[in-house]
Write the structure tokens for this entry.
Amino acid sequence: MLIVGAKGFAKEVLEIFHQKGETENLCFYDDMSSGIPDVLYDQFKVIKNEQQAKAHFEKNSAEFVLGIGNPELRSKLAEKFQNLGGLLTSSISKFAEIGSFGVKIGEGTNILGGTRISNDVKIGIGTIVYYNCIITHDVVNGDFCEISPGAILLGRCKIGNHVKIGAGAIIFPDVTIGDHSIIAAGAVVRQDVPENSMAAGVPAEIKKTL
């Protein structure tokens, strides 16, 4: 397994694999950061160019997961590493609770521990669901979103693509959040939020257009 990224969020993803006992042949990729060692934690190789990544896919597994937090960058890296021969793969903590019926999780999604996802939930490609989130029945979540720790998405709400939902935010039932919007931490969203908007407050109001 190749984790794309070697800092920040990549460490969260590593813990998912460690808890599952799936770290054999696991390595990281980082061709941007300065000061990254060739081996992390005295155990995991860090690949630092595209040629090495392609060789890794050919020699080992083609699977890779996204270890970067920024939704826009995640989207670009997913395309880049698929073009190198990689297979975009999800990472789901064994401490997450996932509904048994009608749940669809897109490839490249990261779901961290303590999260609870109910039945008939759809999560799009490349989305991050951080620690202790709650996503209830019939929620539809778009591609390459970031749902921060403790956020709550209530029944039948719809989240667009490339949406960022801050820590502890609550999205009420039947609310729609447009593409490329940001919901601030702690916001309580009772009404629809247009695309390319930033909403904050209790109750949430549109603060600016992005």
